[in-house]
């Protein structure tokens, strides 16, 4: 696939086939993805790959979180929906970065770490592996942060849910970029 098609056709995927993704393959994809531009070469990122029992704990945690404050059947429905949504994800990749005390450095580090995530999604897309970058409210909770092992001084950048796509969503419309491009001669 040529790079322009790859960039345009990649979609965020959140429904996956019941088919495992190779951890070794994802590690190799991450290694390639990390070849990003990075001011001062701080390379502040780290990744945690979650499958198996930890993934089951995460699904339970998502169920508990989404059903909080509800009772009876409504609680069960909310729990089951979130639990099922997380359980069908073959793999989660948590992305962290060391958080510099310097605002500019922090922003530049976040930019570079974001590039890795997008590289990962493009490399994945070419291999038929889909993913979505998630930062929903569950990821701000203390139990979540404990489960994924966030360290003092680290910023949680995103939860990448990854697998072979069951359904590829339609592209969301993009603005006409001509309206946002200025030429200064
Ligand atoms: C920083 C970041 C956080 C995101 N968090 C979420 C999220 O929490 N939940 C979600 O459904 N999608 C999330 N997304 C995915 C976007 O919704 C998605 O990229 C957008 O709808 C465009 O769709 P596309 O990626 O298929 O082009 C996030 C994307 C980024 C870049």
UniProtKB/TrEMBL annotation:
Cross-referenced Pfam families: Nitroreductase
Keyword Oxidoreductase attributed: yes
SUPFAM superfamilies associated with the record: FMN-dependent nitroreductase-like (SSF55469)
Protein's UniProt keywords contain NADP: yes
Binding-site positions, FMN: 10-12, 39, 133-135
Stretch forming the signal peptide: none
Nitroreductase domain residues: 7-164
CDD domains registered for this protein in UniProt: YdjA-like (cd02135)
Cofactor remark from the record: Binds 1 FMN per subunit.
Gene3D superfamilies the UniProt entry points to: NADH Oxidase
Gene Ontology MF term list: oxidoreductase activity
InterPro entries, alphabetized: NAD(P)H_nitroreductase (IPR052530), Nitroreductase (IPR029479), Nitroreductase-like (IPR000415), YdjA-like (IPR026021)
Keyword entries, A-Z: Flavoprotein, FMN, NAD, NADP, Oxidoreductase
Similarity comment: Belongs to the nitroreductase family.
Protein name: Putative NAD(P)H nitroreductase
Gene (name only): yfhC
């Amino acid at each position: 696939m040529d790079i322009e098609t790859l960039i345009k056709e990649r979609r965020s995927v959140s429904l996956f086939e019941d088919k495992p993704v190779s951890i070794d393959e994802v590690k190799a994809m991450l290694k390639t993805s990390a070849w990003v531009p990075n001011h001062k070469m701080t390379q502040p990122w780290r990744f945690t790959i979650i499958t198996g029992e930890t993934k089951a704990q995460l699904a339970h945690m998502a169920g508990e979180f989404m059903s909080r404050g509800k009772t009876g059947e409504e609680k069960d429905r909310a729990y089951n929906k979130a639990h099922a949504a997380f359980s069908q994800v073959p793999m989660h990749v948590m992305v962290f970065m060391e958080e510099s005390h310097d605002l500019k450095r922090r922003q530049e580090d976040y930019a570079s770490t974001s590039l890795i995530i997008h590289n990962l999604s493009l490399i994945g897309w070419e291999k038929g592996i889909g993913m979505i970058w998630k930062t929903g409210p569950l990821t701000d909770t203390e139990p979540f942060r404990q489960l994924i092992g966030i360290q003092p001084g680290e910023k949680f950048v995103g939860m990448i849910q990854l697998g072979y796509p069951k359904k590829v969503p339609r592209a969301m419309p993009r603005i006409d970029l001509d309206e946002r491009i200025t030429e200064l001669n």
